[in-house]
Amino acid sequence: MGIFTSETSYFGLDIGSTAIRFVQLKKGGSNPVLVNFGEIPMPPGLEASDSAGDRDKVVALIKQLLKDKKVTEKNVVVGLSSNKIFASVIETPKLDKAQLSKAIVFQAEKYIPMAMDQVKLDFAVVDQNEAAKTLEVLLVAAPNTVIAKYADIVEKAGLEPLALEANALAVSRSLIQSKTIAALILDFSQFDSDITIVSNDTPRLIRSISVGRMTLVKSVSQELGLDETQAEQFVQKFGLTQSKLEGQVYKAIKPSLDSIVAEIKKSVQFFASKYPQQKLEKLIITGSASTIPELAAFFATSTGMPVEFGNAWANVSYPGNLQDTLAGISNNYAAAVGLAARSYHK
Questions:
Q1: Is 264:303 a contact under the CB 8 Å cutoff?
Q2: Which fold does the domain 178-311 belong to in CATH?
Q3: How far is Cα 238 from Cα 248, in angstroms, rounded to an integer?
């Protein structure tokens, strides 16, 4: 949602549920070069609130972050959480640009659970079948109320919004290193999780589910009779390790993780039925909940897929002395990096 050239200077801004993060890149050789990055904590519930007072608090946090990191750039690409947007890959007859735009609006009414005058619609052709004379089109829609909220926030922060983009698209841009690979990305965050399947450098499925780190924490809190602070500590310390505390933490959080596994399997089955000639090569995990002990082993066993942790900085050039710092925050920066790389992605 938004058009600009690769010569435009800007930064990516991820207004998340637990922190606001930004990344600024500049044009480099084979990869864009890291210019600046940073984050500021977000109080619980603030990002989701629609009250004017809370919106002003988010504005103040953005201003503080950019002041602290000495950011003078005003142009920004802003991320939208996948649970705030609708996305689907649809098939249309092969048409010229003008006809396609009209056809997309007509088709969108079948897929978007809102009136067309209540959403901002965007689309991109992702593939074409010459034999069948059809196009595959990635359809993305966001409610006008969401667009207005984010535009208002960034403009009050003194910034110029160049584009709004679904975080799932940005995450796949930062984590996928080969254009030929087919992979499933699990962005396992604080309150929800995004499942994105990417093939030939293009998202083919985007699904958001309401299971996140706090789902696990609440399960442990209830099952073990702990307050949420203690439960959080138990989840982070013991995770899916069955040999500790007689596996009590594992037993408490497994049902929630099983629901994610079920959604992953559904997504894999959908992909296999639609693209039988392509094989998903791996499951890539990122997000704030990806640091839970034994998580990778659990998903590898449960899904039967090779599992790896995503590297948000894989497609970015940066000084060697930042290696350890960037590795330590990679799981939280995939969206911000992807937003910053929007115009540099070939």
A1: yes
A2: Nucleotidyltransferase; domain 5 (3.30.420)
A3: 9
234 — phi, psi (to 5°)?
-65, -45
| Rg of the chain on CA atoms, in Å | 20
CATH topology match: 1-84+142-177+314-346 vs 178-311: yes
Read out DSSP for 125-188? EEEEETTTTEEEEEEEEEEHHHHHHHHHHHHHTT-EEEEEEEHHHHHHHHH---TT-EEEEEEE
Mind listing the pLDDT tens digit for each residue in 214-229? 999 999 999 999 999 9
Whether pLDDT at 63 is above 60: yes
161: β partners = 76
Give me the pLDDT at residue 345, please.
66
- List the one residue out of 298, 296, 277 whose CA is nearest residue 286: 296
pLDDT band at 241 (very low <50, low <70, confident <90, very high): very high
Give the CA dihedral 288, 166, 15, 154, nearest 10 degrees.
170
Identity at 48, one-letter amino acid code: A
Question: How many CB atoms are located within 10 Å of the residue 11 CB?
Answer: 24
Neighbours of 68 (CB within 10 A): 10
Taking the C-alpha atoms of residue 201 and residue 123, their distance in angstroms, rounded to an integer, is: 16
What residues does each domain of the chain span? 1-84+142-177+314-346, 178-311
CB contact at 8 A, 73 and 110 = no
Q: Please say whether the structural domain 1-84+142-177+314-346 has been given the CATH code 3.30.420.40.
A: yes
pLDDT digits (tens, 9 = 90+) for 291-339: 999 999 999 999 999 999 999 999 999 999 999 999 999 999 999 999 9
* pLDDT (mean) for 175-193: 92
Calculate the CA 8 to chain-centre distance. 23
Name beta bridge partners: 318: none
Half-sphere exposure of 315 (CA within 13 A, CB side): 26
Residue 199 tokens read as 């093939």
Residue 51's φ and ψ, nearest 5 degrees, are -75, 150
